[in-house]
Amino acid sequence: MKRRTTLAALAALLACGTARAQLPRLDDLLNKGGAALPGLSAGGAGSGDAPTDVAGIKEALAVGTERAVAGLSRRDGYFGNQAVKILMPASIQKVADVARMAGFQKQVDDFVLSMNRAAEAAVPMASRFFGDAIRDMTLDDARGILAGGDTTATEFFRGKTQDRLFAAFRPVVSKKVDEVGATRAYKDLIGRYEKVPLVGRQSLDLDDYVTGKALDGLFLMVGEEEKKIRANPAARTTDLLKRVFGR
């Protein structure tokens, strides 16, 4: 029963809509790795059929991740979610405080908004990397997820994809912050702040900051989806998930 509950939790790891269209189909995921996971249902967990259990695990991973990606990639996916909203970098918080007092509240607000818009533009790219991680899942990976805690599947994805996601996100973030005005707003804020006597020059790699925060938010939401599915059988939204996790 405990392993079935653990399996159920995995269904919270992917998103829907356009993000789902970017993911490999379940049949494609099973073409690589499914046959390499025999005996997964041993001990009475799952459907009792190893290939079906493998398919169910992979579908759970796909469905949950889709949900997280789709939720974050829509307008205000980051900006409107206080759990993942990208805030003013701590290293230049004094810049923002001085700017606000000097009557530049709008510039500060525009700067924060534009960082979040850049994250929303980059996050759909995660679907491809998550799909690769699902395809490449090994027997040990699956066993570890089954035996793990509330966010074991999320940590699996983070370990497999973090570096590649950062490398893929950063150019998109860099381009988007220019398009939506984050860089201009940042330079304007910094320029005004540095004119204040005795302040000195400020430094921040804006692209690295936004990329890192975008990934932090992504994995936080993937983890929330995983925990939701572990606790709520109603989140098993396909026949396969119900068959594998509903026993």
Provide a compact summary of the structure.
This protein is mostly helical and 247 residues long.
Keywords for this entry:
247 residues, disordered N terminus, mainly alpha, signal, 12 helices
How would you describe this protein?
The protein has 247 residues and is an all-alpha fold. It has one domain (2-245). It is built from 12 helices and 1 strand; from the N terminus they run H-E-H-H-H-H-H-H-H-H-H-H-H. It has helices at residues 2-9, 18-21, 26-30, 50-73, 93-101, 105-122, 126-135, 139-147, 152-180, 182-194, 206-231, 239-245, and one strand at residues 14-15. Helix 6 packs antiparallel against helix 10. The longest helix is centred in the last third of the chain and has 29 residues, at 152-180. The chain is elongated, with a radius of gyration of 21 Å. The N and C termini lie close together (8 Å). The model is unreliable at 1-21 and 29-46 (pLDDT under 50).
Write the layout of secondary structure elements.
Layout lengths: L1 H8 L4 E2 L2 H4 L4 H5 L19 H24 L19 H9 L3 H18 L3 H10 L3 H9 L4 H29 L1 H13 L11 H26 L7 H7 L2
Helix pairs in contact: 1-11, 4-7, 4-11, 4-12, 5-6, 5-10, 6-9, 6-10, 6-11, 7-9, 9-11
Name the assembly state: single chain
Largest sheet: none
Count the strands? 1
Helix content: 55-70%
How many H/I helices?
12
Mean pLDDT: 73
Element pattern in H and E: HEHHHHHHHHHHH
Our estimate of the beta-strand percent is under 5%
Secondary structural class: mainly alpha
Q: Please, how many domains? A: 1
Radius of gyration: 21 Å
